Amino acid sequence: MSQCELQNRISEVQFVCVELNLYLDTHPADQDARNDYYSYSTLLAELIAQYEAEYGPLQGFGHSPTNTGCWVCSEWPWEKR
């Protein structure tokens, strides 16, 4: 997957997570939705980890869920191979 494709996929899965989270706020007993939320949350964490392994931190200021603080040492866009 290219960097752009991976970013798009992360955005899509983030959207699903937010929507499921909102749904669960009003339907907390829906176990199927809860299972879907956990599945998509796991997928999101995997996609973020994949992106950061290939392209560097996804979030600025060192607040990455997988590589806290490594943004300082990562390559700048113009230094990419």
Q: Any chance you could write out the topology, listing elements then pairs?
A:
Elements: H1 3-26, H2 31-55
Range of strand content: under 5%
Structural class: mainly alpha
Largest sheet at a glance?
none
User: Number of folding domains?
Assistant: 1
What percent of residues adopt helix (DSSP H or I)?
55-70%
Instruction: Determine the number of helices (DSSP H or I, runs of at least 4 residues).
Output: 2
| Overall shape | elongated
Describe the protein.
Helix content is 60%, strand content 0%. The chain has helices at 3-26, 31-55. The two termini are 17 Å apart. It is built from two helices and no strands. The chain has one domain (3-79). Helix 1 packs antiparallel against helix 2. The protein has 81 residues and is mainly alpha-helical. The longest helix has 25 residues, at 31-55.
Features of this protein?
81 residues; 2 helices; 0% strand; elongated
Write a brief caption for the model.
By secondary structure, the chain is an all-alpha fold. It contains 2 helices and no strands. The protein has helices spanning 3-26, 31-55.
